[in-house]
Design goal:
Elements: H1 2-13, H2 30-47, H3 50-164, H4 167-185
Helix pairs in contact: 1-2
Length: 186
């Protein structure tokens, strides 16, 4: 109530009210009529408790804003918690991926070493097989040379014996051979 009286007093004392011509407290003075209408308007607002309603609405609005701020803070904290969780999970996944890559590198290195060892063994086997083939080819060539030498020797001996032997010597050799066979068979 004091506020309204102070407002009313300020309006009546205000200098613009004295700007109109003629006496102030007459119905022909527009400044007086406007001042009275304004005072009545203020009194109606006070009578229907409009300032309290406006204050209540502003308080409700402030409470709504405060609850939205509290909710936003809670959501922010929850988002930070989720972000920290995802960052931790991402770090764990990165570490696991690094371990997998390191393990794969080690396996690849071991596989390369095993492949190199297998290649060495394969080369050694092929080299041994080639040496065996060479030895077999040498033995076969030596055998062929010996067989040829024997054939050539037999042919040469036959020709020499045939050229130098007479019929009587041939018959004597045949009889001697028959006696040897008989002695060995009995």
């Amino acid at each position: 109530m004091r506020k309204s009286l102070a407002t009313l007093l300020a309006l009546t004392v205000a200098s613009p009210a004295f700007a109109a011509s003629g006496p102030f407290f007459s119905l022909s003075n527009t400044n007086f009529i406007v001042s009275m209408a304004f005072i009545v308007f203020i009194l109606v607002l006070i009578k229907f408790k409009v300032p309290g309603m406006i204050g209540g609405m502003l308080d409700k609005r402030a409470e709504g804003i405060q609850s939205e701020l509290d909710e936003a803070r809670a959501l922010r904290e929850e988002a930070q918690t989720i972000l920290a969780s995802y960052e931790r999970k991402q770090k764990e996944v990165q570490e696991q991926a690094d371990r997998i890559v390191e393990h794969a590198k080690e396996e690849a290195k071991l596989a390369a070493e095993a492949a190199q060892e297998d290649l060495k063994k394969s080369i050694a086997r092929r080299l041994q097989a080639a040496q065996d083939q060479i030895a077999s080819a040498e033995a076969s060539a030596v055998k062929e040379v010996r067989d040829m030498a024997v054939d050539v020797s037999v042919k040469a001996a036959r020709e020499i014996v045939a050229a130098q032997m007479t019929a009587a010597q041939g018959n004597a050799l045949i009889e001697s051979a028959i006696k040897d066979v008989e002695a060995k068979l009995h």
